[in-house]
Structure formats: structure tokens, C-alpha cells
Specification:
350 residues, 0% strand, elongated
Length: 350
Amino acid sequence: MPKHIVRLLLLIGIFGIVAIGAKFYFTDKSFGIYGHYRADAVAEIAADAPIYQGAAFCQSCHGEQYAMWRKGIHKVVTCETCHGAAAQHPAAAPPAAPPVPVDPRMHSRIAAERLDHVKLAILTDTVKLCTLCHEKMPGRPATQRQIEVSRHAGGQQCIVCHNPHSPKLAAAGVSQAAKPVDVAAGRKKAAACASCHGAEGVSANPVWPSLAGQQRGYLVSALQAYKAGARRDPLMTEQAKGLSEADMIELAAFYASLSCQSAGSSAAAPVVSAGKAKAATCAACHGAEGVSGNPAWPSLAGLQEAYLVNALKAYRTGARQNPMMAGPVKGLSDADIGQLAAYYAGLKCK
């Protein structure tokens, strides 16, 4: 046999012996016991601190938020889905009576390595988070509320309008306004308002709103805003300063009990049509036909055109401060505001 063939076979043999030796040297002794993996890894993973602790882990320290979450529609989404795994929680010590055992190794190196991708414990961009489930897309279930992100709330953060732990729409002023009230007492107090808003809540002045049939909860919150300075108006601020909470509730109940009357619009059809198209972004709060389904938000159908123009401009300049309105109005031009006002003024109030 030629010498070069012998040398080649010898070299192959040496490589084979080295490879077999390396296989035995570098392969863990527990490899292959249960399958094509290292068997000891199972016990190591089981002994490692759990990354996800479950919603009950949060209950002892965050009882109020836990209660809201548990009663709300988001209870199918656990705390750690939004806030990140509990293993990265910066708590200095476990609660006195934890609902689940707290592993002292919860900040282990392995857990930390696996948590590089999780969301921040304190959320800052709720739009990015919430739209993972709620951005309108073909094929998503109709029972899961969907929004068109570019047309929804003017790009504001979701928590401006929604409680993150129980994301129902806000209802400021409703809890107090929903209580039984003596409407007759409200009528007596409304005598001081009649010169501007009409004896029966229908204003004769186009720059002052008709209040008849308006949402009761909204009227309470509006009066509260005037008294607190969140809304600034020379006439209303002074009037609201002297009102107690009971006065506001009685006034709201009286005006809500009256029959509304639409102001009507004299704008040309193209202006009204343009306003209707723009009003699509307002429908979630103020109703598709300008009649709000939420007692905390005003119905706009049939309100005076001049009043609506002034109100929208006040929100845009900050004379009226409301975080829910700040986003939608910031991009409106004077022409946009005029078109919206013309559309809503021409609708029939109910």
C-alpha cells in the first residue's frame, strides 16, 4: 500500500479517536436520559425562581387596583401582561402574609436574563401597549373593542379616558348626579340662570348653550370645572363659586328633566357634510348622532352653532381644560371647527 495512503488513513484514525474522546468529554453525563437534552436541566429550571407569579402576588400591596381589575372586563389579562413579570419587581421585602410563596431567589441571574424583553414596570406609552389587542385589524373578533389608531383620541395616551385596571370609559360627576334629587329645588335655583339659559333651559342667545335635556352627570362636572377654574368664563366662574355640591346636583337634575329644542344650522350643505365626516372621530364620546350614551359627556345635537364654535376654540387654547378634549381639538383649524359646529347644530336633539 502506498505510504501516502497509509499516512492518510492514520490521520483519519487519529481524528476519529479525538472526536470520540471529545464527545464523551464535553457531553454532560445526564444527556439523553429522558430524551435529546440534558436531564439535569429539568431540575435546574424547576428550582429556579418562577418568572411569572400570578395576579394574586400583587394583591397584598395593590389591593385597590387588584379589586378594580378583578371586577372589570380586563380580568382575563393578568397584571404581568402589562407590567412585566413579578420577578423583576423592585420590592425590598415580601409582604407580611403573601398570597403565594415568595422565592428569595426571585432576582436570580437566570430570571434577569430572561426579562430583557419584558415591558417596563411603570407604563409610559399605553397607546403602544393597548393597540397590541385593540387596533382595528381584519380577522380580529368583533367582541374585542377595536379602534382606528390614527383617528382615535388625537393620539392621546389611553389612560386619559380609560382606567387601565378596568378600562371602562370615564364617568366624572355621574356618581353624585345619579342620586335621587328634588327637581323642584333645582327649578328654584335655576331662576338665577334663566336670563342666559332660558326659563326652560332653551337659550335665546346663540353664544350661550341651551341646557334643557342635557346629560345630568356632564352638567355637574361642568359646574365643578367652572368652580375649580378648569373652565374660565367671566359669567360662569362667578356663578359657580357660590354653588355647593348639592346645588350643582339639583340644578343638573332640573335641566336634565326638561325637553330639549334644537337650534338648527343655516350653513350650506357642503359645510354640514364636511362636518359630518369630521364628527366620526367624536362619535365614541358624543354619539353617532350627537346624543351621548355616557352621562359624563355632553350631547351636542341641536346646540347653538356659535356656542359650539366658542367651546371648541376654548378647548384648543386651554381656556377650557379637559385632558379628554385636548387631543382631539389640537389639530382642528377654524374651518374644521365651523364645520363641526354647523353639523351638530343641525341635528335633532332627543
